[in-house]
Write a structure and sequence with these properties.
The chain has 790 residues and is an alpha/beta fold. 44% of the residues lie in helices and 19% in strands. The chain is built from 27 helices and 25 strands. The strands form 4 sheets. The chain has an 8-stranded parallel beta sheet, sandwiched between helices. Strands 21-22-20-23-24-19-25 form a 7-stranded parallel beta sheet, with helices on both faces. Helix 3 crosses helix 4 and helix 16 runs antiparallel to helix 17.
Length: 790
């Protein structure tokens, strides 16, 4: 909302017309139960078509702005008029609104916010061209029928000037508060020194590279091991850049709760050293909603009722806090009786940093449109644990539907909504025919053509669903219908993107058919999403090879790279590779006892806590059973695929509290215990990595392999090798977390002897190959003996 800019000496705050109007004039209830919203890309396409149909005297996309001077700053209000008709005797500005509502419904009254927006445009245009009066036209265009309805009013320039001045006067109270905050914040930034007495190796260069990439509006891939202080260095550098480059806000994007907690903890340290910086942690709606069984409107939810009337006081209260964590937002939302999620979105416009999931920057369905919908912004993206983004981005641009879920909706709805029932019946009949085709073609199988025959039936379902959902009737089947409606809408949106980077996957499981539109290569979509930022910093302990990430994420081929070496003494880590034991699927039954013996050869040399990582739950369970038979006296704990957050915390607590006894944890690579957990000192003695982390062979992975073979000749690497080794290195990174840690890493797989795998391991590791159990025991024993004599 408020973008600072002081290039000419006088600070400038900027705000768009639409944002200004909505902020000042919204009132009454929050209502999120209107369905059938038009996607921004679709709205843009329709606008262009309408503008292209206008006569020669029509100019589309006319920019306007107005500057208001105050003693402390300039307030610049700007926008873009959809179109201007210039006639010899009059001027008409047009504001186009696309809708799915019955156009006749607008005869009783048009949206006051639409008129307010158009009147602001009219004022600025009339002032710029010295007009005494001007016509304002609201054009409502029905997206399904293509019909239009126009409403035209004539305003004097004086009326528009007075109207605009009233809006500005009301907004100035908030603008003054914002400017006072920026003065306070920027002063604290200049005064805040790095919060530690000494820099860790590589930290200074890291901060310098981050500052440079922001200045150059570029992209940086930063690989730095855990414990190198990269989170502090990155955040400190970006905070320093806030006033220097007039950044309105920056986004700390993370995939896990642990990433959010780490960022919050880093800001807490900086605040202890004098920094004033408002930071919001944005939490998913389902995790903070107070009334999960209610509809999101004023009639059904007390926290939506009168939301906009109570919002100013709630915002004013929120802005007295610098750390707007999940707990703080919930506390304030309860205090002011406002929806916590929508409240947090409103707060986001007034803070300096937003900590949130990747989805809010990249996902086409949930990205923060209030920041990114209209044009490129002066934002910085900090992508934490960026090794996760490739698979996450592929998921964002893929979609699936399955017959079982659609059948459940049909059963729940029954005959209560005839139009929805008919649409679902037609879809289910079509999918039954597809099942027969799937049986002939093979199960599973893929095609490189979209299932276009299904699209009209899905559109019929969403249209019927919208009509009923907009009636806001609370029934036992509303929630399941609503969830399925959004799933089908996502499927249809994905279908519009279908090109040679997509494949259609058909999978039969029992009597269920799943149809997936798989995005094999998300690079194009991610390249578009990254234009929402001026700069992006991707950081992780595992970003090797960088070419994999640049290619997969659609980044600039000239993106910068910084690899920070480990700041810890390499003598503190004993790295062994048991390269004679195969973990290939066909040999696993025979090598399970060998793996257990290798594990025991390592752990027998020192009592402590150990983690053993596997590529799959099935493999983990099989080896765990064998371990229990051989070493039943040693306590074990095992990860499961359905662990709750509390169960995961209990798993970690066992390691943090176990002292002077054995504890062996069995876990999967890529899971909750292989990333972003800190087990310091005696909390973790060593780890065993079984296999090379290769994803299971499946239809989707084989399609990705085929695609990248054709594109760059690196299909196996992109589909299997690189994703697997990223998981391997993340799991291995659990062992050394600080300069005081010592530990053992044992890798088990014949492939680690191959050059193409060896080159993916850190260069500063002192690797030793071990051909037998005695060799493992001897080297580990000597490693621990060296500790006692050191």
């Amino acid at each position: 909302m408020n973008t600072p800019d002081n290039k000419n000496g006088t600070p400038v705050l900027r705000i768009g017309v639409r944002t200004l109007v909505e902020f000042i004039l919204r009132s009454g209830d929050l209502d999120l139960t209107t369905f059938g919203a038009i996607h921004p890309s679709e709205g843009t396409r329709i606008h262009c078509a309408i503008q292209g149909s206008r006569p020669p005297e029509y100019d589309p996309e006319v920019p306007v702005q107005s500057t208001q001077a105050t003693p402390l700053y300039l307030l610049v209000v700007s926008g873009r008029i959809d179109g201007v008709y210039t006639y010899p005797d009059r001027v008409v500005i047009e504001e186009i609104k696309t809708t799915k509502k019955d156009l006749a419904s607008f005869d009783a009254g048009q949206d006051p916010l639409h008129w307010a927006q158009a009147q602001c445009y009219a004022y600025m245009y009339a002032a710029e061209h010295a007009l005494q009066s001007i016509d304002v036209r609201l054009t409502y265009h029905h997206v399904e029928t293509g019909t239009e309805k126009e409403y035209t009013r004539t305003f004097t320039a004086q009326f528009l000037q007075d109207y605009f001045a009233q809006l500005i006067q009301r907004y100035m109270v908030w603008a003054d508060r914002r400017m006072q905050w920026l003065i306070t914040r920027n002063g604290s930034i200049r005064a805040t020194v790095f919060p530690f007495d000494a820099f860790r190796p590589g930290q200074k260069q890291l901060m310098g590279d981050v500052k440079e990439i922001i200045a150059e509006r570029g992209q940086l891939f930063l690989q730095a091991p855990t414990g190198s202080g990269k989170t502090m260095a990155v955040l400190y550098a970006v905070v320093q850049a806030l006033p220097e480059h007039d950044l309105p806000v920056f986004f700390y994007l993370t995939a896990r709760t642990t990433g959010r907690v780490a960022a919050e903890a880093t800001f807490a340290i900086l605040r202890d050293h004098g920094l004033r910086c408002k930071v919001l942690s944005l939490t998913a709606k389902e995790k903070v909603c107070f009334n999960k069984d209610r509809m999101c409107n004023g009639s059904d939810c007390a926290f939506a009722r009168g939301f906009y009337d109570r919002l100013p006081a709630a915002l004013e209260d929120a802005l007295t806090h610098d750390g707007l964590t999940r707990e703080t937002v919930i506390m304030l939302a309860r205090k002011h009786r406002v929806c916590p999620f929508e409240f947090s979105l409103e707060i986001s416009l007034w803070v300096d940093c937003v900590i949130c999931d990747y989805n809010y920057a990249f996902d086409p369905k949930v990205y923060l449109k209030r920041f990114f919908a209209e044009e490129e912004g002066n934002y910085v993206f900090l992508v934490d644990e960026a090794h996760n983004l490739v698979d996450r981005s592929r998921d964002m641009f893929s979609a699936e539907i399955n017959k079982h879920d659609l059948g459940q909706v049909a059963e729940a709805v029954g005959k209560n909504i005839p139009s929805v029932s008919r649409a679902l019946d037609a879809i289910l009949q079509m999918m039954t025919r597809m099942e027969e085709e799937c049986a002939i073609a093979g199960n599973p199988h893929a095609e490189h053509e979209p299932p276009e025959e299904l699209y009209p039936l899905l559109i019929d379902f969403t249209s019927a669903g919208e009509q009923w959902l907009n009636r806001n009737e609370f029934t036992v089947y509303r929630e399941i219908l609503l969830d399925t409606y959004f799933e089908v809408k996502r499927f249809l949106w994905t279908a519009e993107q279908y090109n040679d980077t997509y494949a259609t996957c058909y999978t039969m499981t029992g009597d269920d058919l799943k149809i997936a539109l798989l995005c094999m290569d998300p690079a194009h979509h991610m390249a578009q999403a990254l234009t929402r930022s001026r700069s992006a910093v991707f950081f992780s302990a595992t970003l090797h090879p960088v070419t994999f990430f640049v290619e997969s994420l659609g980044c600039d081929p000239e993106a910068s790279t910084l690899i920070v070496p480990s700041p810890f003494d390499s003598e503190n880590l004993c790295v062994l590779i048991a390269h004679k034991i195969s973990t290939f699927f066909k040999f696993r039954e025979y090598t399970k006892p060998e793996i257990v013996k290798a594990i025991c050869s390592m752990i027998d040399q020192r009592v402590g806590n150990y983690l053993v990582f596997f590529p799959s739950y099935e493999y983990m369970n099989a080896v765990h059973d064998n371990f229990r038979r051989q070493r039943g006296a040693i306590p074990t704990i095992m990860q499961t695929s359905s662990m709750s957050e509390m169960e995961r915390e209990e798993f970690i607590t066992r390691f943090k509290t176990n002292r002077n006894e054995y504890l062996v944890g069995f876990a999967v690579m890529g899971g909750a215990f292989a990333e972003s957990i800190d087990l310091l000192g005696e909390q973790l003695t060593g780890a065993v990595i079984v296999g090379v982390g290769m994803p299971g062979i499946c239809l989707e992975r084989e399609l990705i392999k085929e695609y990248y073979d054709g594109k760059i000749g690196a299909g196996y690497a992109f589909a299997y090798q690189y994703p697997g080794m990223i998981k391997v290195l993340q799991a291995a990174g659990r062992v050394i977390r600080s300069e005081n840690d010592r530990g053992v890493l044992l890798f088990i797989d014949t492939r680690y002897a191959r050059p193409e795998y060896l080159e993916l391991l850190p260069k500063d590791w002192r690797i030793r190959y071990v051909a037998g159990y005695d060799a493992i025991a001897d080297l580990v024993q000597r490693f621990w003996r060296h500790e006692r004599t050191a």
